[in-house]
Amino acid sequence: MRALAYDALMAPLGWAGLNAARRQLVEGLSGKVLEVGAGTGLALPAYPDTVASVTAVDVDLEALVRARARRSGVALLQADAQALPFTDGSFDAVVSSLVFCCVDAPATALAEVMRVLRPGGELRLLEHVRAPHRAIATAQDLLTPAWRRLSGGCRLNRDTFRLVETAGFRILKREQRLGGVGEFIFARRP
Questions:
Q1: Within 13 Å of residue 155, how many CA atoms lie on the same side as its CB?
Q2: pLDDT digits (tens, 9 = 90+) for 140-171
């Protein structure tokens, strides 16, 4: 039921631009791609034909069942971003959309992403993040405890960009949107 509710909640956001942002997130990718936190697979239809293979993981089995219908040929696995079941250097790119706000130990998850990426591999994130404007950031801080309980762990005020930098990735692109509460982060494994 949660997966169905998630899709219903995300549909208006998709029409308002989130679907286009997901397409932009995966545009130009090639090789072997891992999608971390694939959920119900809303980003899966956007992958270009240049991608040799897509492996998608999520902790929620019900969500993965819904994801199966979104794109054929995708390997779907129930797994946690904090303990990825892949060998070192397995992927050319790792993609994640609206996930790192919910991960309990994002530094651990980013270390896992670094581990499974080949040297020179690319990390692409689409996240909602802590706003750069003090008033909005303060509102996020105040709302986060209640929102976290209602949303299954989402933290409105997480500074994902700093976490990616601290994890040792080389930032290629940072594009803030929606007044800074949403952003693309493209980075490369050294």
A1: 13
A2: 888 888 888 877 788 888 999 999 999 999 99
**What tokens were used for 21?**
């942002």
Name 33's bridge partners: 54, 93
- pTM attached to this predicted model: 0.88
Contact 37, 102 (CB under 8 A): yes
Compute CA distances 32 → 90, 92, 149, 154, 182, whole Å: 8, 5, 35, 28, 26
